[in-house]
């Protein structure tokens, strides 16, 4: 059907893809290709629980049912079908970062239960590393949220919400095997080049509960030419183990404590061009993340509530390169992150609400190469103290009831003040308005308007790190004089729903950015034949676009959803288009239930071509992929599932360095799941 619309290459295929994907429904919606219901509760945009349709801050949602329906194993896979969201490979790593509305991974804050996740590279979070066995939902808010969440939320927030533990005893065991066909590194199509297993065991009483989850995935890599040395898709072994306890002393409150460890072993194989020959090289990287987090909430009978959270996390990254039996570039990094947060919710007269909060945060970085520090000092550290407040205003009782209804207008105002150990004070604000302008017998229409100031303090690597690639003729040097990035973000959207049968949203965004941090390639210095590049505040930019999204339940057994995003970007200093920002993106989802026990799903993704190099005008071609999913319940406890990723085998040209299309070709897998107990 129409998903084969965008053949991918060339302007004709690109235009076809845009037209058909747009016609088949389109972008950035609170559904995010999930079976979103109007009473779903979200917390990210307002920092308190609200039905998604009533929040003044537009929130997109990927529910647990969608994660299970699409067999998402990691956060990266859970985000693949969110309209308007771009997943990019992290340079030099076997992972992916997130871009929202044209803002890069450094400007997007990734949270787990409201607490930040350490950036694996010291600057951007690898969303391939978080397993989803105990996840309830994923919430995505695009645009500046710095007034709610501080630095790094300049481009938006992705908040992963874990499941609360249910009383009784329950558990789940699942596993699957997959193959890349003749692109398995062994060259044997029948080999299981990808292996995954996960376990969840939980239970307890009404007051005390405990959960253990484990996840392991081994991927041998992706190799279109197994007989050659280079391997475009890295071999990766990831393991995650979490233990969580909960105490529920009263319906008024609950407390939790969770400890976890994540490990990753990755191998990259490539060839380095040397005079007269290509030298085979490899890079080995070991990652260990130890994370302890917890918190609690309590609400009194008068509506006053208090919530606290804490996080202590340590990330160790050890990497080494090898070539012709020689070891070199032995790099060790140690990243520390601590955060303590307190939030108070105060009900005010006439239905108004006030929230007050404080965050204390500590970051540290230590990094050596071949035993010598790569930083400006043996260890660098940054501390911040932040106070924030949000005020929710609604009209007095009876105001506008005849026209709009009593809960039809809501204004959310926010302010955050930060005192940073390196950059001093900074204050930003935000304002979001929701107006329900249409209330019919069968339909509801609401308008959302939003504005937010964004800022991002330079991370420790951008200020202190020396990225030494002298053997390749260059080094990148941190700049301790960098200034924070700043932005103004504007959002407008209309949402129309017809019960639970049909839902439609049209929105627009405009992000105006200044002091953006990038490598200053135009002012490189040469010393001893080595180019010296530095980070600098050299760019002003703008990203703006429109987003269209919809979801339709055509029958009890058939559901269709999709999204389309059109985006323009501009470097306001040079006038050029920004690199690695596609102008068009489309998403399509279809779910068909057969005989209650069997479900077939399709997920299509389209991305237009994108500028790669402003100097040469090189562009990466457009691409389209279609994924097929199958779920079948054998009994109430046992299910089998399978799928084909990239059904039509659309893959990048590895000989073209400007092609950033999919690395993985067709991937076929089968799996089984067993559940028991109360959940």
Q: Overview of this structure, please?
A:
This protein is mostly beta strands and about 675 residues long. The protein is about 5% helix and about 60% strand. The protein is built from five helices and 37 strands. The protein has a 22-stranded antiparallel beta barrel. The chain is globular and about 80 Å long. The N terminus is likely disordered.
Quick summary:
The protein has 679 residues and is mainly β. 5% of the residues lie in helices and 58% in strands.
Keyword list:
679 residues; mainly beta; Maltoporin, Chain A; five-stranded mixed β-sheet; 37 strands; 5% helix; globular
Q: Strand-residue fraction?
A: over 45%
Second-tier CATH architecture: Beta Barrel
**Poorly predicted regions:** 1-36
**Tell me about the biggest sheet?**
22 strands, antiparallel, barrel
Rg, nearest Å: 25 Å
Helix content: under 10%
Mean pLDDT: 89
Number of E-type strands? 37
What's the CATH first level?
Mainly Beta
Overall outline: globular
Helix/strand/pairing category: mainly beta
How many structural domains does the protein architecture include? 1
| CATH homologous superfamily caption | TonB-dependent receptor, beta-barrel domain
Count of alpha/pi helices: 5
How are the SSEs ordered, and which strands pair?
Elements: H1 10-23, E1 41-42, E2 50-51, E3 60-63, H2 64-69, H3 75-79, E4 85-89, E5 96-100, E6 108-112, E7 115-116, E8 135-142, H4 146-149, E9 156-162, E10 168-179, E11 194-204, E12 208-219, E13 231-250, E14 253-274, E15 277-299, E16 305-323, E17 326-347, E18 353-369, E19 372-373, E20 380-393, E21 409-420, E22 424-439, E23 444-456, H5 460-464, E24 466-469, E25 474-477, E26 485-498, E27 502-519, E28 525-527, E29 530-555, E30 558-571, E31 584-594, E32 598-607, E33 610-611, E34 619-620, E35 623-633, E36 638-645, E37 667-677
Parallel strand pairs: 6-9, 25-29
Antiparallel strand pairs: 1-2, 3-8, 4-5, 6-7, 8-9, 10-11, 10-37, 11-12, 12-13, 13-14, 14-15, 15-16, 16-17, 17-18, 18-19, 18-20, 20-21, 21-22, 22-23, 23-26, 24-25, 26-27, 27-29, 28-29, 29-30, 30-31, 31-32, 32-35, 33-34, 35-36, 36-37
């Amino acid at each position: 059907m129409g998903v084969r619309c965008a053949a991918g290459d060339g302007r004709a295929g690109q235009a076809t893809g845009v037209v058909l994907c747009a016609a088949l429904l389109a972008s950035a919606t609170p559904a995010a290709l999930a079976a979103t219901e109007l009473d779903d509760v979200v917390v990210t945009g307002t920092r308190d629980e609200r039905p998604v349709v009533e929040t003044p801050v537009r929130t997109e949602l990927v529910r647990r049912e969608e994660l299970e329906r699409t067999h998402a194993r990691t956060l990266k896979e859970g985000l693949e079908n969110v309209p308007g969201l771009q997943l990019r490979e992290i340079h030099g790593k076997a992972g992916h970062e997130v871009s929202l509305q044209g803002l890069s991974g450094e400007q997007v804050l990734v949270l787990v239960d409201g607490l930040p996740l350490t950036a694996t590279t010291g600057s951007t979070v690898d969303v391939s590393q978080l397993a989803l066995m105990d996840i309830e939902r994923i919430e995505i808010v695009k645009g500046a949220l710095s007034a709610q969440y501080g630095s790094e939320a300049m481009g938006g927030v992705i908040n992963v919400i874990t499941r609360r533990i249910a009383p009784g005893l329950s558990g789940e065991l699942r596993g699957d095997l997959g193959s890349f066909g003749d692109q398995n590194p062994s060259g044997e199509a029948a080999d299981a080049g990808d292996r995954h297993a996960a376990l969840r065991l939980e239970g307890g009483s009404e007051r005390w509960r405990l959960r253990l989850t484990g996840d392991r995935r081994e991927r041998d890599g992706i190799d279109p030419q197994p007989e050659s040395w280079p391997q475009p898709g890295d071999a990766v072994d990831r393991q995650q183990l979490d233990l969580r306890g909960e105490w529920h002393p009263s319906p008024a409150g609950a407390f939790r404590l969770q400890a976890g460890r994540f490990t990753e072993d990755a191998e990259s194989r490539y060839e380095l061009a040397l005079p007269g020959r290509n030298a085979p090289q490899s890079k080995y990287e070991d990652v260990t993340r130890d994370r302890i987090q917890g918190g609690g909430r309590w609400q009194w009978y008068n509506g006053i509530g208090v919530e606290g959270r804490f996080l202590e996390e340590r990330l160790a990254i050890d990497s080494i390169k090898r070539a012709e039996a020689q070891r070199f570039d032995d790099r060790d990094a140690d990243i520390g992150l601590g955060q303590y947060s307190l939030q108070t919710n105060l009900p005010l007269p006439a239905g108004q609400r006030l929230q007050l909060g404080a965050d204390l945060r500590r970051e540290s970085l230590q990094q050596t190469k071949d035993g010598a520090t790569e930083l400006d000092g043996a260890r660098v550290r940054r501390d911040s103290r932040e106070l924030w407040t949000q005020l929710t205003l609604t009209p007095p009782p009876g105001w506008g009831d005849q026209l709009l209804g009593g809960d039809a207008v809501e204004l959310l105002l926010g302010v955050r003040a930060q005192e940073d150990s390196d950059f001093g004070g900074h204050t930003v604000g935000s304002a979001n308005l929701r107006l329900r302008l249409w209330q019919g017998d069968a339909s509801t229409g609401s308008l959302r308007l939003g504005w937010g100031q964004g800022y991002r303090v330079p991370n420790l690597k951008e200020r202190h790190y020396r990225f030494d690639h002298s053997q390749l003729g260059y080094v990148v040097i941190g700049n301790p004089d960098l200034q924070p990035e700043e932005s103004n973000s504007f959002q407008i959207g209309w949402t129309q729903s017809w019960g639970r049968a049909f839902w439609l949203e049209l929105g627009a965004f405009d992000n105006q950015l200044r002091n953006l941090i990038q490598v200053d390639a135009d002012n490189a210095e040469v010393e001893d034949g080595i180019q010296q590049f530095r980070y600098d505040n050299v760019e002003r930019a703008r990203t703006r676009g429109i987003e269209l999204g919809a979801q339709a339940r055509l029958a009890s057994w058939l559901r269709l959803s999709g999204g389309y995003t059109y985006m323009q970007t501009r470097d306001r200093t040079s006038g050029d288009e920004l690199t690695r920002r596609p102008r068009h993106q489309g998403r399509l989802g279809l779910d068909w239930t057969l005989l209650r026990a069997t479900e077939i799903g399709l997920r299509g993704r389209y991305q237009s071509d994108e500028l790669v190099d402003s100097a040469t005008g090189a562009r990466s071609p457009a691409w389209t992929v279609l994924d097929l999913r199958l779920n079948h319940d054998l009994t109430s406890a046992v299910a089998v599932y399978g799928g084909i990723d990239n059904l039509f085998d659309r893959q990048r040209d590895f000989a073209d360095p400007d092609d950033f299309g999919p690395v993985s070709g067709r991937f076929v897998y089968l799996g089984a799941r067993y559940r028991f107990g109360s959940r």
